[in-house]
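Replying to the earlier thread about multi-chain prediction with a worked example.

Input:
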Amino acid sequence: MLKTLKDKKLENCSSINNKSKKQKHIVVGLSGGVDSSLSAALLMEDGWKVEGLTLWLMKGEGSCCSEGLVDAAGLCEDLGIQHNILDSRVIFEREVIKKTTEGYESGYTPLPCSMCNKNVKFEEMLKFVIKQKEFTYIATGHYARVIKSSCEHINNSENFQFKDFLLLRGADRNKDQSYFLYSLSQEVLSRLILPLGDLKKEETRKEALRLGLRTAKKPESQDLCLVEHYGSMQKFIDNHVKTKNGEIKHINGKTLGTHNGIQHFTIGQRKGLGIAWPEPLYVESLDKQKNIVYVANKNDLLKREAIIKEVNWVSIEAPIKEIEVEAQIRYRSEPVKGILVPLKSKDNLTKRFKLIFEDNQSSVTPGQAAVFYKGEILLGGGLISEFSKK
Ligand SMILES: Nc1ncnc2c1ncn2[C@@H]1O[C@H](COP(=O)(O)OP(=O)(O)OP(=O)(O)O)[C@@H](O)[C@H]1O
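Result:
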């Protein structure tokens, strides 16, 4: 197995070294792309007993569909391993397509990859391995890391109550996919091996070439399989969400134009508004009830707080008092400092938190995930449900 960890101390903590591996059974989620192919090949090289599993997510061409299934099958043939295919089209339709559509209808900007990881990919893989006769691990080609919290090199100056397994950012910050994994449970983490967590994307390609994998030169897939499938998110929306004309208003109340459905807009959007105004205007909020798109100057987009719902604590027990975090509010955005305050609920098991930013933030977008980190450790995350003004 390649050793590329920058921090050699953490290397000894990595789950791949902690979980005794020789001849242990592992099921690798294969999408037909280079990342999951290399994951399977590296695990084999490392002595694991590997099987492939491809979830059939949608009808059609492309990596999520028939092309992905065929590529994954070919890879398994090359590697001489069993290939399993699960028809997950119904659950994908219900949990991703329908919920993404409902999100847009409600004026949110949904995050289909998180929905898929939460309710389809890892659910289905876990169910599959639990049914196996012997204890079976799970692997995917995500760029993130899982380590044991008992690792002595973990800094816990905040006195967090760590759970047994911690989820960490991928070592390659440009490829880090931990943001999409905030909904994982300890049950999944205890079985999960992420063989690419310590690699850079260039290293993945090099390794795939070294091992002669048929997917070594396959182009990078889109971040979003729905984009790859439909051509663009706009086309997905046109296909699924009904058009309902409404008004575009300045937050000062002045009507500036009309729109053909709030689903076509996202917070922070500047282009394509089709309105004339002396200074640049941006989408500030979407009012589903009144079917209004509100626009404002850049400064008016700045928010002080957001309410985060359905929070899942991945690596720590749910905090009962406020904690300081680094919050990432979009996949590609830099983490920002903030304070998380638990909001009371009747059962005392709050899943709602108020996130107060140290500096006001633009692009706080309901429907996107807010993921909380402390350095490399992903503490937990949830969905931005609303924001309050500056
Ligand atoms: N249809 C699927 N069936 C099983 N596992 C999947 C499927 N799609 C994705 N995965 C797993 O999830 C990981 C991350 O998926 P993502 O869609 O982000 O692909 P990716 O980063 O482009 O990886 P790849 O190069 O393997 O396609 C994949 O590496 C793979 O292990």
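Residues 29-31, 33-36, 53-55, 57, 63-64, 68, 121, 140-142, 221, 225 surround adenosine-5'-triphosphate (CB under 6 Å).

Feel free to reuse this layout for your own posts.
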